[in-house]
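Record now logged for everyone:
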Amino acid sequence: QVQLVESGGGLVQAGGSLRLSCAASGRTFNDYNMGWFRQAPGKEREFVSAINRRTGSTFYADSVKGRFTISRDNPKNTVYLQMNSLNFEDTAVYYCALRTWGAVRAMADWRTMEYWGKGTLVTVSS
């Protein structure tokens, strides 16, 4: 089994920044993709960004491109999401997910993720 633990959420004013972290533990894999998804109240879970552990290749949703940056620290088995220029529409619970197969650019479908964290709440005040 794999455990994913997110941290770094909180309350921030519009225009501000936050950095989320997702630490993976338990069963290890040589290669996998890790992604960030978010879900706002009353809305479906949506893809935010993903990264491949081995190559570092990244993929972003259009809504966050240029504002969010995903990165990884392989020795720590941790993935980060730096979020800048936050706006009210970014308010959501952010989830970390892991999938051991497929290309990083195919990470947009949350239904195909194998492991999930419990989420961390990001609230952007206007």
Remarks:
- The chain has a mean pLDDT of 95.
- The two ends are 40 Å apart (CA to CA).
- The first strand starts at residue 2 and ends at 7.
